[in-house]
Amino acid sequence: MTTPVIIDTDPGIDDAVAILCALKSSALRVLGLTTVAGNIPLARTTENAGRILALAGADMPVVSGADRPLVRAPFAATDVHGGDGLGGVALPPPRAPARTDAVGWIARTLRDHPEGQIDLLVLGPMTNIALLLREDEDAARRVRRIVAMGGAIAEPGNVGPRAEFNMAADPEAAEAVFAAGLRLTLIPLDVTRKVRAGPCEVAELAASLREDARAAAALIEAYFQSTDGGEIPASRPLHDPCVMLFEEAPALFGCEDMHLSVDLSPPRAGGALLEGPHPVRVARRVDGSRALALLMERLMAP
Ligand code: RIB
Ligand code: CA
Fold first, then answer.
1. What atom in ligand 1 is closest to the CA of residue 123?
2. N or C: which end of the chain has fewer CB within 10 A?
């Protein structure tokens, strides 16, 4: 069965790899990309979304959304993704200009499909999804489910002791989405840090005859080099691709139904996940080697 999906994204190196993986998956029918400010500002995440589609030879809408969090000042992750958001990897120019108004486009797309058919795959801050709930709740409730990369349960955070970037960038949006009662599955750092690419994966992709596979090699290599000033690690976690891998092969993951809320404190604490009232399904375990093998199979595919 092929699931129609909308990918909400802040590309972003790992977002780019995730989108390339989704476009190669026979289990997913990507209806379009909506963009959000996150890793880098909106204009760049939107341009990068267009570049990724041009690289893949895929024609579908790119629709820009929120250029800032609901209430907080934005903070970027250029130290990880580079100023261009793609680690300096040159991708083809977008084939078509992006549209604007991601919320309106998502709402129309949800209404153009039977209720309960479309999954929202969220790879960045949840700002667009929170705005969709605020501006068109009836449309939002037509989703089948939301699968989002974010949070940390029993893992340290990556922007604060317990705060993960997507949650920390817009905690108010995440809390609003958690509180909406939609079917929500969270793919936290606890599992994404177990799906790690290293020099072997880079070399295999770099040797491909396909431009998109070689670009994936360059993106992972760039991600590989980008550290927070520490020594270069032997491998790097591929966070966002885990959302696509969960969509396609949920049996590789082990989930737990939890009740959570989002810490709305000022930064470094803000975005941490707390015990709370909102039911959220959380991936707690993953077969990391099989997940990585599936990702490589998709990225290497013609
Ligand atoms: O914490 C990892 C998440 O933050 C990923 O989505 C990455 O792209 C960044 O946005
Ligand atoms: Ca992302």
1. 6
2. N
